[in-house]
Amino acid sequence: MTSKRKEELLDKFIDDINNDQKPRVYKKEKINQELTPDLEEDFETIRKLKRCKQLRPDSRSNENYRTSESIGRTIVKKPVFKGVAAAFACFLLLFFGGIFTDDNNANIVQAMVEKYEEITGYSAEVKVTSIDNGEVTHETFREINFKKPDLYKAVESWDNVKRTNISDGDTLWIINEAVDKSTDTSNKSVTVEPLFPEKELWRYHLGTQISGIDEAEIIEEMDKEEIAGRSARVIRYKYNEKEEYWHKIWIDEEEKFPLKLILKGGPDSKLVVEYENLEINPGFDENTFVFDELDVDIDSIDKSLTFNKLLDDKQELESLLEREVYSLDKDDVSGKDIDLELNKVGYIDTNWLYQGVLRYEDKEDKENFLDIYQGTAREEEMLLFGGGEKGEVGKIGEDNLLEFLEGETGLFDNYPKPVNYLRFRINGGNAENGKDKVAIVSNLPAEVMVNFAEELTGKQIKLEGY
Fold it and tell me: Which residue, 42, 241, 409, 445, has most beta carbons within 10 Å?
């Protein structure tokens, strides 16, 4: 392997772990064949830097988010230094190896993260309890089946209500059932979501809890306890030094998965999450993630609840929007090992900023995606980033402004995992008052999104700091 090729693979690896993605080197067969023991050692060195929080920008702390002094922020902002950072990592490991290997608290968390990356799915029973001033204020019970990337069936019960979410990867079905115990009758309604089947996953997702603690800056081990016959290591953590209250997690010492979490919301307020009967990589029945209309009276499906519409093609979207729809003319980005194809075209009734979306996904890795939003539901807008306090800004060509937000969770209530958000105007003006408003949402690195934005606009884009 040439030194140039090795540098390219290291660059891709750093991009992926900076964006909390499973590294492409393990997903793509052609790249996987190039792996050598020396290269694996370099990857492990980079992982150790990440565990020490030097390789990933902190999306929770605005103060840290803005600085470029750390190694990690430099890597993200200036890709040319990735190879230098990897070499520096090797230097640190050679002379200060004890800094990394003695960090047992971070290691158990990293082991949990890596274990989750390896699995294909899980099933579990989850109890979620809200406690205020020592009293239980709300309690829900959940039965969860999940298969990567976004197949899930979750049945959630509380009081006299039951909600079932079923995603087959293409469509999300939300079945709400209210029971009247006095008459022993029930009323069902069904909501259909054809565009964003992953949107409800955050409510139940074990991966969300795991990635949450992986974002913590301060991690301390307290003791070992036994839960349901399992030996667990108890970790307390804070997302940053300014956070007042400690959260806690009990990690199964053998299986490396959470058994219990306590999330503090105030001095006398906490959320307790308990996992029971957790089964890793279960053999799911082929009908587990299929919505069976026979189980629900089809007349009860309230079409008014089907806000978003799946369209046949972008021409149909152009007809609805009465304007041109901007799409990609080519499916790949040179040198990034990304091969995108158009997966869905949709009309959105539920977004106050955009009315149309084109959803692209990677042909080889379905977890990688890029969504292009366009059109506006209304002309009046507010600054999404508080006047630029949270996001980066840049320019299209000489004058037109654009804005970039990194690592945002819950964007538009459609994305349960952290995504990057780039918005701009194509035909003049800044991101607020131009003519054709467009946004790109993706889990891909910033420089890849900028490449696609340049293709859409036909102009060079300069994103400050990148």
Answer: 445
Tokens 């949709």 -> residue: 346
Q: How far, in Å, CA of 404 to CA of 439, rounded? A: 10
Q: Is the pLDDT of residue 395 over 80?
A: no
Homologous superfamily (CATH) for 121-280? Lipoprotein localisation LolA/LolB/LppX (2.50.20.10)
The pTM (predicted TM-score) of the whole model is 0.70
Give the domain ranges of the chain: 3-102, 121-280, 309-463
Q: Which residue, among 289, 297, 307, has the nearest Cα to 154 in the 3D structure?
A: 289
Residue with tokens 């997702």: 205
The answer to whether the CB of 420 falls within 8 A of the CB of 453 is: no
Dist. CA 306–CA 173, nearest whole Å = 10
Token pair listed for 441: 């949402």
Residue whose pair of structure tokens reads 């819950």 in the numeric block: 410
- Residue 192, SS3? strand
- Per-residue model confidence as pLDDT tens digits over 301-355: 554 455 688 999 999 999 988 888 888 865 455 445 678 899 999 998 776 678 8
Residue 299 is encoded by which pair of tokens?
């007349």
What is the CB neighbour count within 10 angstroms for residue 293?
10
The H or E element that residue 274 is part of is strand 269-280
